[in-house]
Amino acid sequence: MGTLMVSVSGIRGIVGDGLYPGTIVKYITAYSKFIGKGKVVIGSDGRITGDMVRNLVSGTLTACGNDVYDIGVCPTPTVLLNVKKVGAVGGISISASHNPNEWNALKLLNSEGEFLTPEESDEFLSLLDDAENNYVKWDEVGKTFDYKEGLLNHVNDVLKMKLLNIAKLKERKFRVLLDCVNGAGSWVMKDFLEKLGCEVIEHDCEKSGVFPRLPEPIPQNLTGTMEAIKANNVDLGIVLDPDVDRLVLLTDKGEPFIEENTITQAVKYILSKNPGSNVVVNLSTTRGVDNVTEEFGGKVFRSPVGEANVVKLMKEVGAVIGGEGSGGVIFPEVHYGRDALVGTAITLMHLLDFRGTMTQLKESLPQYFIVKKKVLIGRANPDEVLNLIKTKYSGEKINDEDGVRIDFPSHWVHLRKSNTEPIIRCIVEAIDETEAENLAGKYLNEIKELL
After folding, report:
1. 81 and 126 together in one domain
2. What is the pLDDT of residues 277-334, one digit of tens each?
3. pTM listed for this prediction
4. Which of 174, 191, 233, 162 is nearest to 354 (CA)?
5. DSSP code per residue over 267-324
6. Cβ(321)–Cβ(341) under 8 Å?
7. End position of a domain, from candidates 364, 390, 413
8. CATH code where residue 318 lies
9. Is there a domain that residue 295 lies in?
10. Residue 435 is part of which domain span?
11. How many separate domains does the chain show?
């Protein structure tokens, strides 16, 4: 059967070992039935199999009577933004995000240019068995258009952000080392940074789609990038994942800025301009966001993990900014989606106004350490295990919307089941790294004792 993961995040698998052409056709046919006739925007992250999958997706959609607006290789947020630009009924980003070369995926959007909600995903999946009844006659087949304006629309909308002072940025002329891991960022990010007055040193920015390292932008995968920063005397490093929705920053010293700090500093800057406003992050995101929000009289709301959940709550509470601790910044003035171009623009303005180095900016933020672990639970029922943990800590501050998050004065822990593996994930944040590690070990042992 191979590897295929189907969830609210989309359809993800290894090409030729689970993600087969027939699989793609089946899911896209059901998706077309779910969204109905009309325009669909598509784009891919540049990986080797992107063209093959994009052609299958385009052919299937037109066979169902949809017109396809194909942006080509582009960031995932570019697809999101252009759905509403062209009045489309949906959109598909063909990207396995930070998964290695052999993976690919279909990320499905609704007519708002947002990822399907859990309810929408369930409705779409319910149509799989009857999908073949959706094909149209020969004279009703849709058309495919090369939508070359897609990338330009995205860049122009980010450049229109009210907070941007492009003249001052050009005067400052930040020196930036850019690592696109040879993904979709290679097609847009250098030009974008130069429009913001930056001098750009490229590192792994070839338009090959062949990732030269493991593409997840975590410190252990970025040793070469960090060395390049030290060798090039830059103000900061900007590291992207293959589909450019996550922004990971490196300091002028070639050290991790820490990905949780990406959203923390973005929230701090936006709230400094919009005091008293609401912010939304997920339950696994750093407490640093709460600290900087309180500083400006705002309020933090927390959603279950998942971009669609963050966006839903942002709309409900009218949040001016939101996101996730993995480097995902959502700024609704531009669009409701994680976007590294948006995050970069906010970061450069923050650093400009801060008047210090990236190292100093990092030191000015709340200092926390996050540890992420997981424990195999075999055939045990994860919901029962989490309920027992909740009962044990019933006297503490608990949020059970997505697993169990328990907040203590000195730390917090978030325990949640995986939808794809027999594991429980454990995330702990504390003021001290050793304490975070020890606490994570403590909670994992408590879970093991319940198995």
Report:
1. yes
2. 999 999 999 999 999 999 999 999 999 999 999 999 999 999 999 999 989 999 999 9
3. 0.95
4. 174
5. HHHHHHHSTT-EEEEETTS-THHHHHHHHTT-EEEEE-SSHHHHHHHHHHHT-SEEEE
6. no
7. 364
8. 3.40.120.10
9. yes
10. 369-450
11. 3
